[in-house]
# Entry
Amino acid sequence: MKHKGEVFQHFLNFKAMVEKEKGVSIKCLRFDGGGEYFSNEFSEYLKEHGIQRKYSCSYSPQQNGIAKRKNKHIIKIAHVMLNEKNLPNYFWAKAETTAIYIMNRTPTTTVHGITPEEKFIGKKPNVSHIRVFGCIAYVHVPDEKRSKLNPKAEKCIFIGYSSKQNIYKCFNPSTRKLQLSRDVMFDAESCNGYPYPWLPNTHPYPWVNGWVMGMGLDTWVGNGWVSQHLAPVLLSSFILVMD
# Structure
């Protein structure tokens, strides 16, 4: 999500997914009092569907402590993941999304020792596909896209999972493009603690360099804006009361 104005549409998507999958309706929406939740369109929709709105007081983050701590936790994990493999800061979004993906499949005392994924769907998640973020990944090139003498694989960096397909996301520094494939060989110990001499220090899109690299990762995520607006990918970002 690039703009706060997109919150309403993401909420509609989230509501449709939850109600379709769980067969229950949202009765209450709790948030931190951000102005994006008070648009006329958002307010009218909540009123029309009988959804109660509750929010914290201004300048009182302690009333929203659970969400604040979770946001901070996500940022810390993403920071470690980037530094462990010496990846450039422009991978922060992929690192945070991957951190959330793994956290939703990790047991926690919050839901009595099971995983958030299992609590939500009622089935133990399969974690056999989990790989080391930032490691070297050799992505198979289909026969249709190469000649007999061309390499059968491309050297990439593993940067996450797809929520829509059973495939891996890999970044190819040579072409500066995202590769999506299920046929990938991983080198989990590769470049562990060493820089990637072949990895560009700037983002493929110039406007991202000025947006992220210019501000610095710590400055940009320090105010919690990033993880707050990754809410659509974190099941627990919306605190819901369902019937």
User: Anything to note?
Assistant: Confidence is low (pLDDT under 50) at residues 207-243. The helical segments are 7-22, 40-48, 65-84, 92-103, 116-121, 206-213, 217-221, 225-228. Strands lie at 26-31, 52-55, 136-140, 153-161, 168-172, 177-181, 184-187, 239-242. The chain has two domains: 1-55, 56-227.
